[in-house]
Amino acid sequence: MLLENVKLALSGLLANKLRTFLTMLGIIIGIASVIAIMTVGDAMNKSVMGSMGDMGVNNISVFVTQKMSEDYDFSYDSDVREMKDKDYVSEDMLTDLSEHFEGRIEGISLKKSVGEIKVEDGKKYANINLDGVNNTGLKQNKLKLLSGRGFSANEQKESRKVIIVSDRYVENMLGGDTAAALGKTVETVIDNKYYTYTIIGVYEYSESSSGGMSAGKNRKDVRTSAYIPLKTAIIQLREKTLYDEFEVVARTGEDQGVLSADIQQYLNKKYYKENDAYETYSYSMKEEIKSMESMLNTQTYAFAAIGAISLLVGGIGVMNIMIVSITERTREIGTRKALGATNGYIRLQFITEAVVVCFIGGILGIIVGQFFGIMACKMMGYSGSASVGGIIFCVLFSMAFGVFFGYYPANKAAKLNPIEALRYE
Amino acid sequence: MQDIITVPPIIEARGIVKRFNEGSENELEILHGIDLNVRKGEFVSIVGTSGSGKSTLMNIIGLLDKPTAGSYMLDGVDVCCAGDTELSHIRNSKIGFVFQTYNLIARTSAIKNVELPMLYAGVKAKERRERAMELLELVEMKERINHTPDELSGGQKQRVAIARALVNHPSIILADEPTGALDSATGRKIMDLFHKLHKEQGITIVFITHSPELAKETERILTLKDGEFIDERMGIKYAS
Asked: Which residues in chain A are contacts of B64 at CB distance < 8 A?
């Protein structure tokens, strides 16, 4: 019965090709715009989330910040005093923090940036970004060591002048043999002072670890990171072991939102209660990503909703043409009723017709939308792909649309008085 | 002629009254208490000028309309109290309509048109096709089963319509001016087809016309005027 109806609907639609196509066009444009927007939106989200994900999802960032004004107007005091030693997070505080949260955290990642340096040797040169890190911090960079090793506890404690460099550095300065590079020295000038480090490890450089900073640069000019022990960097910078920011690595399975709040509360309560201008603030990357994701999704849905307006217009077009079609076929409806079609059957017949129009329109719309969506993604440099969920949703939605906009005209047809319908000229 | 007493009536209508706009100032009584009996296998014609109420009577007999008062038994079933859906089923199984304007479904092949009532009856596709073929053969339209109504002449369309009316083995064929839109030669052939169906298949036919000439060929002629039967007589061939 249903199959017969679909066949009937198709033959009816084929009999009026131009009209059917124009009716479908509304649905095609509506679905296409929704699909195109969703495709571009998804691609953008994925790209943004991908780059954020590289920043370490298990980390909780803690930094020292100005205390918010008392009246909570969310503005910072502009003439607040400079940070003094007592405002920074000290080594003791970090030790206390690690002990207090033992079991919930993996460790505390500390990093001091020494600066961007050009190492030169005759005609050879390499750009490096020199960072002092503790061992938790080194681990966070997820380096793939090609030869050598990481820092030992002693090297950290005694601030030895050892360095881990990238394979690119070795390629530029030492001919590319990573094993042979171990034990060689890196000589550089920082702030007019001369430093020498011994290479103890070589890691494999990857594009993603540089955060896309290398794009468009000559292979030779790419700036790669090099790591030295944290204390080595601190001494070199003539700083104290004080930090205005650090990262806490959470144990897997730990609720990072809760942990982040606990850390902030613990530090502020214990160390910053009496402080007149500063306090700590912490946030979890995962939570940030989550809220960012939901924001981006909201944005995509908002755009898709605008696209859906054209779908609504298309749906009204379908309804309109159904009413015209039913008026034209009044006699046919009367005949069908005389031959024994029940009201339900007539209703089903016309709803099927509307659903078929919307279904075919929906499929075409998905193809067109996918095409333009992926084109737009390519032009903007994202890798766009079809979202299967979106497609299934659109197919079902367009069919539901057919039922919705077909119901009123179909019901009108079903309720026609057969005598009047038969007499209709 | 068969014995009246032993043949059960197909149509047994008593005191059929039809009023339009009931209760309002424009109340209009079209039928004033009509009695009608049609026996199985009978070929009856109802003659009347336009405005005599024959269309209204046909609509009531054909279950497209309900009488204001009176009782109506169709093939032993009281149809006065049936609901819309039930009436659709009864129309589908017991009544075959033949219209003046053929009323074939446009853009649909002859065979699909003939299959339509069986589709509503829920007959399986294969069976539908076989039965439709059988009937198109009976009305001599076997060569044109795949033609759409646009591609058929008036007489051919009416043949297809007759095949469609017969397809569900109805209790009666209700033919409303079936030759009205045809030229006399073609109309003649359609009349011959009705006679053939009546004689060879024993089909009950109620033939509604304004033409006394055609009516005379039938077994029994009822003349309707101003909503009442004013005359009843036997047809020429059957008179003696």
From this structure: 337-338, 418-419, 422
